[in-house]
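Weekly puzzle thread! Below is a chain. First person to post its structure in token form gets bragging rights.
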Amino acid sequence: MLLTLDLNDARPLHEQVAAAIRRAIGEGRYAQGDRLPPARDLAAALGINPNTVLRAMRELRDEGLLEFRRGRGVSVAARADARTLLRERARELLDEAQRYGYGREDLIAILEELA
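Winning reply:
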């Protein structure tokens, strides 16, 4: 799993990790039943604390995307629907727009220009 974190992103790290895993599931890189790497391995690859990865995974478990099985690790419970994936990307776009000084209405106007 190739996850990357944006150190300039104002969101907490666990939210960034959850978003990256959610995106990987939504894009089909992980299918229902696939096992994810252990939290410790993901944390080491990302250079963050394993508890941060576990917090993200618990959030995704609560959303119904991941399933924790004792002795079997963490696996994908369901595929993220398109709406969930689009909401996540829209949230990221809004955060990016705010970093450049644009508000919600500005972003809506830009999107309407594209339609």
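Puzzle host: Confirmed. Bonus trivia for everyone else. The two ends are 34 Å apart (CA to CA).
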